[in-house]
Specification:
The complex is a heterotrimer of chains A (about 120), B (about 80) and C (about 300). Chain A has one domain: Helix Hairpins. Chain A contains 5 helices and no strands. Chain A has helices at about 1-5, 10-25, 30-50, 75-105, 110-124. Chain A is elongated. Chain B has about 80 residues and is an all-alpha fold. Chain B has helices spanning about 1-20, 25-45, 50-75. Chain B is flat. Chain B has one domain. Classes of the chains: A mainly alpha (about 120), B mainly alpha (about 80), C mainly alpha (about 300). Chains A and C meet through helix 1, helix 2 and helix 4 of A and helix 3, helix 4, helix 5, helix 6 and helix 7 of C.
Chain lengths: ~120, ~80, ~300
């Protein structure tokens, strides 16, 4: 079992990072650290996906002149999927940070417990 | 190369575990940028140069810059008043 | 009330409806006018009190349940990972005939030597079109949240902004300006190289667009917004964004339409493959997105 763990090291580390990011998103009181946890989760998923495309001993998928032999290059498909994902991840981060800036302007704090108290006080 | 992979993966774990523990949010953002840099080197080791360029530009560059700008707007750049 | 409406032509009525002339003013933004006083930086005792309160709350039911769920999730996922096929083996189920086809036929179908760029722009072009739409929507939503013009900013913030710009103009940051003067031409050149050479070497639309946006951010940060408005103001920004997305949609629609119906495509053979114009469109959208984020967060307007 230890051998399988060491062989699939990328996937195991990706899963542990996903768990760490998930714990941050659920249990952090500071909104900015929640956003950082969300980004860690995203990066973990990308690491997992891109490690599926690697084939040992082959090179980057840039077809050099004339050498059109598919057994010399790695699988290009997971790489393309992750490229889309990285850009979407930064868009979501930018939007959440804009929301945090507006919350701060209205309520003066970004800690979750104080924020909920102030919202409740405002509703009364 | 496997040694470098192990070092980078261990570094990723250390950065992710310690990033949310700091009181100053500036340090959290800097540790997150280091995390992103190590990811960029890992993409190169996995033979995907497109991902490496994009992650280096976007993760440490654009995302880090957005975090710093947000920190300036919420007045958290200076930490506690004892410093 | 009805005669002035009847006297306006249809075009004028449409324009005034789009501008929102007849609507009542949005009251929610007026909450910003009753401003809270700026909270002082927390002192050490307050931090310690806060942490003690949080540790007491930590043993409530929500954190314990959250911790248990996370540990269970990680355990299930690790046991699944142990049953996966080995990493880097050529006989994995993901290496079937699809990547073989892509690697062998990329050069003749798309004109791109870089298999990843050729694949995401032509074979899997819908995904990239959806992602460009996501970028477009992200900048639009950040603009909705953070736009500051005369109508929704109170006097205090306007004066503070004017004061900060005055200070920045009087004492420019010499190190930053000198470094920007030396580096910006190379950054732009390198960004255009990555963008246009993305078919032969690693790179392509996203990386090139990001570096281009980064160059614009450096220029705008070092020399102020007045200097960058000479060649990149808000009309050019909106034009670039819209033009990039429409160009991509139009070209890719033409490409799939002619391919599906078996018509000849003179446009594609003129360019030697459709990757280059689509790359350029994606680069424009990404660059304007990145610069738009910076401008919105710093100043509230472009």
């Amino acid at each position: 079992m230890l051998n399988a763990l060491l062989e699939n090291r990328f996937a195991v580390i990706a899963v542990i990072l996903f768990g760490i990011g998930f714990v941050n998103v659920m249990m952090q009181f500071n909104l900015l650290k929640k956003v950082v946890g969300f980004n860690i989760m995203d990066s973990a998923v990308f690491l997992f996906l891109a490690s599926l495309g690697y084939v040992g001993g082959r090179g980057a998928p840039i077809v050099t002149e004339g050498v059109v032999d598919a057994s010399l290059y790695i699988n290009p498909i997971p790489s393309g999927l992750v490229l889309t994902g990285i850009v979407v991840s930064v868009s979501v981060t930018a939007f959440s940070l804009a929301l945090i800036v507006r919350i701060y302007k209205k309520y003066g704090t970004i800690e979750l417990d104080e924020l909920l108290e102030r919202v409740k006080k405002e509703e009364d | 190369m496997t040694v470098l992979e192990y070092i980078l993966l261990a570094g990723l774990l250390i950065c992710a575990i310690t990033a949310p523990f700091f009181r100053r949010l500036l340090v959290t953002v800097i540790v997150y940028s280091t995390f992103s840099l190590m990811m960029a080197v890992l993409w190169t080791l996995l033979q995907s140069p497109d991902l490496a360029i994009t992650e280096a530009g976007v993760g440490a560059g654009v995302s880090g810059m957005l975090f710093f700008l947000a920190l300036k707007k919420i007045n958290e750049l200076k930490g506690t008043s004892d410093e | 009330m009805s005669e002035p409406h009847g006297k306006k032509s249809l075009g004028e009525r449409f324009v005034s409806w789009v501008n929102g002339d007849g609507e009542t003013k949005d009251r929610t933004l007026f909450v910003m006018e009753c401003r809270m006083p700026r909270p002082p930086c927390r002192r050490e005792e307050e931090h310690r009190k806060l942490e003690k309160r949080r540790v007491k709350k930590f043993l409530g039911w929500y954190p314990l349940a959250a911790g248990l769920i996370c540990v269970a999730l990680v355990a299930i996922l690790v046991s699944v990972v142990l049953a996966m096929p080995l990493f880097g083996h050529p006989d994995n189920p993901t290496n079937n005939e699809v990547p073989t086809y892509y690697l062998e036929h990329t050069e003749e179908d798309t004109g791109a030597v870089n298999a990843v760029t050729g694949m995401i722009l032509t074979y899997r072009g819908f995904d990239t079109l959806g992602e460009s739409c996501v970028l477009f929507m992200a900048v639009t939503s950040v603009m909705i949240l953070l736009w500051q013009d005369v109508k929704n900013t109170d006097e205090h913030d306007l004066q503070k902004l004017a004061r900060e710009e005055e200070i920045k103009r009087k004492n420019p940051d010499v190190v930053l300006q000198y470094a920007a003067k030396v580096l910006t031409p190379f950054i732009f050149l390198f960004a255009l190289y990555i963008l246009f050479y993305g078919e032969e070497s690693p790179g392509g639309g996203f990386s090139g667009g990001t570096v281009l946006g980064g160059g614009l951010i450096l220029y705008s940060c070092a020399f102020g917004f007045g200097r960058i408005h000479t060649f990149f103001n808000s009309r050019i920004f909106n034009f670039l964004r819209l033009c990039g997305l429409l160009l991509y949609a139009g070209l890719y629609g033409y490409y799939t339409f002619t391919g599906a119906n078996g018509l000849g495509d003179p446009l594609v053979s003129a360019f030697g493959g459709l990757s280059l114009p689509i790359d350029f469109a994606v680069g424009m959208v990404v660059a304007s997105t990145v610069y738009g984020f910076y401008a919105m967060f710093t100043r509230g307007e472009l």
